[in-house]
Design brief:
Elements (H helix, E strand, L loop, with lengths): L1 H28 L8 H12 L2 H34 L1 H16 L2 H8 L8 H23 L3 H9 L4 H39 L5 H10 L3 H39 L1
Helix pairs in contact: 2-10, 3-4, 3-6, 3-8, 4-6, 5-6, 5-8, 6-8, 8-9, 8-10, 9-10
């Protein structure tokens, strides 16, 4: 908390710089259709936030992204455990994960639209973007476990649950946290991009698409600002949650 307060003046100064630059550019352009001012965007955002449709769209988009994130996390951890045990599984899965990381998101969205419904596709795309990151980081954490501790646990025939709790989880958790930190924003943006292309009802992406279609530039900026703020909030909440789990795990290890 104290560290965050110390960083607050610098963060406000940076925010003030970019806001001032935005104001100057908006005045220079002089056309709200091309570049609305920050004040106009905030007014539009405040007006939108006073409607139930805004909150329903935001909630539905958040739930889609979180569903994809949860699916990717569970599947990524399971696949990492599988590839840690089987060299053949790792040999077969590695090219697929590389392919997913290398292929443009738009290509996956267009292909998946042939097989999946509009409501499901954003969650699927989010999961697809996050899965390789979770898998690779958790795999690195499993590979980095202390071999001497594992051998000692085998000698004393410790239960698997205790080995998992006191050796595996503390080793994997920093890598898992890094995976979330690097993939949360990417997964959120991929999910919103999927909504923009598929236009599911009650979604942020649908509103962004319609704002672009009808040249409502101020609304387009307001929805984009909403995406940014929600991305930061989701990332902050989930990382803090994982951090608390790590602290509890560390305390349990120390007690043991």
């Amino acid at each position: 908390m104290k560290a965050a307060l110390r960083r607050l003046p610098a963060a406000l100064a940076v925010l003030g710089f970019w806001t001032a630059l935005w104001i100057l550019l908006a005045r220079f352009v002089g056309q709200e259709l091309l570049l609305p001012s920050p004040l106009a965007v905030l007014r539009t955002l405040a007006s939108m936030a006073g409607t139930s449709a805004f909150w329903l769209a935001a909630l539905r988009s958040i739930l889609r992204v979180l569903a994809g994130l949860l699916a990717a996390t569970v599947l990524g951890v399971l696949l990492a455990a599988l590839t840690e045990k089987s060299a053949l599984a790792r040999l077969l899965l590695s090219p697929a994960m590389t392919l997913v990381k290398s292929t443009p998101v738009a290509s996956f969205i267009i292909l998946a639209l042939l097989w999946l419904g509009r409501d499901v596709l954003p969650a699927f795309i989010t999961a697809l973007m996050v899965l390789p990151v979770v898998w690779s980081n958790v795999s690195a954490g499993l590979a980095g476990r202390d071999r001497q501790l594992l051998e000692l646990a085998a000698v004393y025939r410790l239960p698997r649950l205790r080995v998992l709790r006191h050796i595996t989880i503390p080793s994997v958790l920093p890598h898992f946290r890094a995976a979330l930190r690097s993939s949360l924003g990417m997964g959120w943006k991929a999910g919103i991009a999927a909504e923009v292309l598929t236009v599911p009802p009650l979604s942020i992406g649908k509103n962004i698409f319609e704002a672009k279609l009808y040249l409502e530039t101020t609304q387009l900026f307001a929805w984009t600002l909403t995406v940014i703020v929600l991305s930061l909030l989701i990332e902050r909440v989930l990382l803090r949650l994982v951090g608390r789990i790590g602290q509890k795990g560390g305390g349990a290890c120390a007690d043991a």
